[in-house]
């Protein structure tokens, strides 16, 4: 039986879709599936029927709720700097992320290079599946000549093409439009980071694989065989689909997990309330309690008979004034199990929440804060799937207007069209695509 070895960084939002693909591969009965990742995920790997091995690719981690994940002091400082930057807006946040990139995303390559060789000797995989943001792993596999496929966990521009620069959104939603001078400064910094990353790659290759030519752009180094995108194929990105082959999965989650009895009771007790709104800002941005509280205040005023369910991370104490039978707050939500019961979703534009919400054809309002969230919000607007607002600058009238238009069914045709695409793809499609290569 062939072995596929999947390597995930210690980030829940990356591990979760990779685990879903692993399960789909496991179900084919044609692979032994090994997942090398952080020990925090070991139980989930074993529960999926896969083999586990340890590989910690970075000391930065987020295994559920970022603020509550045990971090080294340096990583805690960077997380706090990032969160403070989000209060200042899109460009300061992207600027801070660009400054942190070398430390966050490219740990010392030699130990990982050595560990990959140990994994190769132990498991003898036929092929590796690697998260694109595992840069040191990709570099090691490239240097060693081991066959691998690339999984792109977020927006497709995480693998830049054309004149795109990693760390600079290729487009922004209409509510967030940086000035030309702001974008120019960000592009300069991101280009500098790109050069620094590439220099690190090439210094390593000179020592470990001198027979290989230098890498032109470290952020574009990916599998020469196939790239798997956890995103709908809107038909406007990565149009060159051969060498490497490119597959758009639409979504990477298990669509119908059971809802536990406690949540079933909550949904049943509130079945007559409308609308039922889910508020989720992801594992990092649930720390923006100011925006969550503002949204809760607005929806409560605008929808006196609604039900509002919000993930608030480790900050429940800050929401005492909102605790009642109409507003349900939790540190961490069973999001994919709740989505079928919701009428509307407010979220941050993270790719997992975006694709999960789209799968269920739910209207959505996006508040992008960082990273690829601006590009995702732009696409969602452009293709008639969602509307977006600036999380640091929105007022009641604008908020109400966008929700009202979405609930009226204004975007229903586009939402259903792209939801159908998503439902027809997914982890099984990606697993079968991988099988076609082997």
- The percent range for helix content is 40-55%
Q: Characterize the largest beta sheet: strand count, sense, and whether it forms a barrel.
A: 7 strands, parallel
Order of helices and strands: EHEHEHHHEHEHEEHEHHEEHEHEHEHHH
* Beta-strand percentage range: 5-15%
Integer count of domains? 2
Indicate the mean pLDDT: 92
What is the overall number of helices? 16
CATH class of the largest domain: Alpha Beta
Give the C-alpha Rg: 21 Å
Number of strands: 13
- Write down the overall geometry: globular
Low-confidence stretches: 61-71
Structural class, by secondary structure, is: alpha/beta
- First-last Cα distance: 12 Å
CATH superfamily of the largest domain: Glycogen Phosphorylase B
What can be said about this structure in brief?
With 438 residues, this protein is an alpha/beta fold. It contains 16 helices and 13 strands. It has helices at residues 12-27, 42-47, 73-86, 90-105, 109-123, 135-144, 180-208, 261-269, 282-285, 289-302, 335-338, 351-359, 373-382, 396-407, 412-424, 427-437; strands at residues 2-7, 31-37, 51-54, 127-131, 148-152, 226-229, 245-248, 276-280, 307-311, 327-330, 344-347, 364-366, 386-388.
Topology of this structure?
Elements lengths: L1 E6 L4 H16 L3 E7 L4 H6 L3 E4 L18 H14 L3 H16 L3 H15 L3 E5 L3 H10 L3 E5 L27 H29 L17 E4 L15 E4 L12 H9 L6 E5 L1 H4 L3 H14 L4 E5 L15 E4 L4 H4 L5 E4 L3 H9 L4 E3 L6 H10 L3 E3 L7 H12 L4 H13 L2 H11 L1
Parallel strand pairs: 1-2, 1-4, 2-3, 4-5, 5-6, 6-7, 8-9, 8-11, 9-10, 11-12, 12-13
Helix pairs in contact: 1-16, 3-4, 4-7, 5-6
Structure description:
This protein is an alpha/beta fold. The chain folds into 2 domains: 2-69 and 100-253 and 425-437, Glycogen Phosphorylase B (Rossmann fold, 3-Layer(aba) Sandwich); 261-424, Rossmann fold, CATH 3.40.50. The protein is 44% helix and 13% strand. It is built from 16 helices and 13 strands. The strands form 2 sheets. Strands 3-2-1-4-5-6-7 form a 7-stranded parallel β-sheet, with helices on both faces. Strand 2 (31-37), helix 2 (42-47) and strand 3 form a beta-alpha-beta unit. The N and C termini lie close together (12 Å). The relative contact order is 0.13.
């Amino acid at each position: 039986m062939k072995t596929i070895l999947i390597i995930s960084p210690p980030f829940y939002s990356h591990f979760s879709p990779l685990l879903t693909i692993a399960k789909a591969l496991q179900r084919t009965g044609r692979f032994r599936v090994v997942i090398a990742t952080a020990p925090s995920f070991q139980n989930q790997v074993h529960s999926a029927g896969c083999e586990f091995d340890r590989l910690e690719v970075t000391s930065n981690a987020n295994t559920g709720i970022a603020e509550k994940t045990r971090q080294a002091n340096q990583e805690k400082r960077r997380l706090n700097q990032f969160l403070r930057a989000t209060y200042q807006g899109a460009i300061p946040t992207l600027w801070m992320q660009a400054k942190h990139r070398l430390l966050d995303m490219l740990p010392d390559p030699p130990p990982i290079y050595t560990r990959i060789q140990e994994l190769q000797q132990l498991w003898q995989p036929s092929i590796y599946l690697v998260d694109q943001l595992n840069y040191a792993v990709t570099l090691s596999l490239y240097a060693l000549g081991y066959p691998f496929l690339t999984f792109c966990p977020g927006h497709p521009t995480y693998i830049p093409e054309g004149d795109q620069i990693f760390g600079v959104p290729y487009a922004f939603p209409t509510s967030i439009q940086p000035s030309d001078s702001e974008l120019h400064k960000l592009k300069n910094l991101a280009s500098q980071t790109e050069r620094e990353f590439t220099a690190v790659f090439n210094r390593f290759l000179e020592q470990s694989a001198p027979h290989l030519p230098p890498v032109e752009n470290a952020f574009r180094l990916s599998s020469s065989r196939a790239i798997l995108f956890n995103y709908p194929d809107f038909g406007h990105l990565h149009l060159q689909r051969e060498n490497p082959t490119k597959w758009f999965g639409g979504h990477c989650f298990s669509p119908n997990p059971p809802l536990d009895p406690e949540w079933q009771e909550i949904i049943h007790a509130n079945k007559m309330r409308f609308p039922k709104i889910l508020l989720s800002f992801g594992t990092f941005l649930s720390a923006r309690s100011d925006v969550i509280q503002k949204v809760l205040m607005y929806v409560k005023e605008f929808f006196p008979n609604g039900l509002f369910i919000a993930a608030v991370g480790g900050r429940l104490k800050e929401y005492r004034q909102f605790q009642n039978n109409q507003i349900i707050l939790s540190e961490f939500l069973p999001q994919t199990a709740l989505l079928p019961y919701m009428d509307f979703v407010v979220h941050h534009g993270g790719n997992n929440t975006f694709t999960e919400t789209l799968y269920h054809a739910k209207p959505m309002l996006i508040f992008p804060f960082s990273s690829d969230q601006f590009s995702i919000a732009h696409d969602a607007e452009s293709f008639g799937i969602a509307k977006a607002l600036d999380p640091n600058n929105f007022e009641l009238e604008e908020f109400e207007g966008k929700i009202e238009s979405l609930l009226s069914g204004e975007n229903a045709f586009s939402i259903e069209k792209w939801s159908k695409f998503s439902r027809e793809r997914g982890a099984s499609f990606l697993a079968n695509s991988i099988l076609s290569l082997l």
